[in-house]
Amino acid sequence: MDIAAILREVHESVGQSADRGAVATYIPELADIDPGLFAMSVVLADGSQHSVGDAAMPFSIQSISKVFALALALGRLGDRLWFRVGREPSGLAFNSILQLEHEKGIPRNPFINAGAIVVTDAVLSHHAPREYLGELLRFIRTAAGDDDIHINRAVARSETESGHRNFALAHFIRAYGNLVNPPDLTLGAYFHQCAVEMSCDQLARAGRFLMGAPGMPRLVSPGRVRRINALMLTCGHYDGSGDFAFRVGLPGKSGVGGGILVIAPGRASIAVWSPGLNAQGNSKLGTEAVELLARRAGWSVFG
Questions:
Q1: What predicted TM-score, i.e. pTM, was given to this entire model?
Q2: Chunked in runs of 10, what are the mean pLDDT values of the chain (303 residues)?
Q3: For residue 24, what pLDDT is reported?
Q4: Sequence ranges of the domains in the chain
Q5: Cα angle vertex 114, ends 111, 120, to 5°?
Q6: Residue 252 in 3-state DSSP?
Q7: pLDDT of residue 103
Q8: Quick check: do 3-62+198-297 and 63-196 share a fold?
Q9: CA distance 28 to 161
Q10: Res 241: pLDDT
């Protein structure tokens, strides 16, 4: 299979699309990103990497960071984490507060904002945010094999200044006793976590530990790799998760910065970036590109 040729075909195909979606304007630092940018990178099980477009350009990974935070939380707490956050698709927007009231402060899954705030709170565990963020960066850098991965402080500040709904979610969770640290402390760590910047090349390499292929980084146990991938498949695209699973057939986690990390178990780690989002807050062209790639490569967890 010639993955490089398939990537070129995908790049040419999505480049012809007139509708590129809309950038995330509710985070001021992301509002001015050029929606014409596009990148895609694939790391195969043999270790080779193939990229097209703006694959060396860093972007804000936003909610893709929740995958790495979840890996840390499972390493620290194991199955005790599931007493504080569920494992079911939400069926609602990523920042919805409706289910929290009905389910008494237990977020539906670790990839919606409320669930990710609880996961960050669990890993923070009375430590200073800088200690947690240092641990998170070390994990991501080790996964990617690249120390040139950093937090964009301007994006973190922008999220803090505009993150009123996340503050509401955190205080609501705290009211039910499911937040251990003060909301400001947990959210300070959470906003900086979402502001990690990576290129598509780096992100594809960082996802290698979820491939389960020989020679790839072994940062968590095989059992936890399966669980993380399962949650990415069922919950990784918020209320668009079912559609992504139907169209692509692979575990994936999106971010409102326009990035998506996708895993073809045993075969590849895939990163795509196109800043324009669809109605569910997922990259419009990124989703289309991964669908084309998966179809032409014959990759699916469903056979």
A1: 0.96
A2: 94 86 85 92 97 97 98 94 94 74 90 96 88 97 98 94 92 95 96 98 98 94 96 94 96 97 98 94 95 97 90
A3: 83
A4: 3-62+198-297, 63-196
A5: 75
A6: strand
A7: 83
A8: yes
A9: 9
A10: 94
Q: Going edge to edge, which strands form the sheet with 150-151?
A: 59-60, 196-198, 150-151
- At residue 182, what are phi and psi to the nearest 5 degrees? -55, 140
The token duo for 241 is 């998760």
Which residue, 150, 134, 149, 159, is CA-closest to 72?
Answer: 134
Instruction: Output the pLDDT for position 27.
Output: 85
CB–CB of 279/267 below 8 Å?
no
Burial of 197 (0-12, 13-18, 19+ CB in 10 A): middle
For the annotated catalytic residues, the residue numbers are 63, 66, 190, 238, 256
Where helices occur in the chain by DSSP H, the ranges are 3-15, 65-77, 98-102, 113-124, 129-144, 153-162, 164-175, 183-194, 200-206, 222-235, 241-248, 284-297
Task: Locate all alpha helices (DSSP H) within 214-254, ordered by sequence.
Answer: 222-235, 241-248
pLDDT at residue number 87: 95
Residue 112: predicted pLDDT:
93
In 3D space, the residue among 270, 259, 260 whose CA is nearest the CA of residue 300 turns out to be 270
Q: What pLDDT does 276 receive?
A: 94
Residues 132/134/138/140 CA torsion (nearest 10 deg)? 70
| CATH class (in words) of the domain with range 3-62+198-297 | alpha beta
Topology (CATH level 3) of domain 63-196: Beta-lactamase (3.40.710)
Q: Is 48 exposed, middle or buried (0-12, 13-18, 19+ CB in 10 A)?
A: exposed
- Residue 287: predicted pLDDT: 96
Measured in whole angstroms, how far is the alpha carbon of residue 106 from the centre of its chain?
Answer: 21
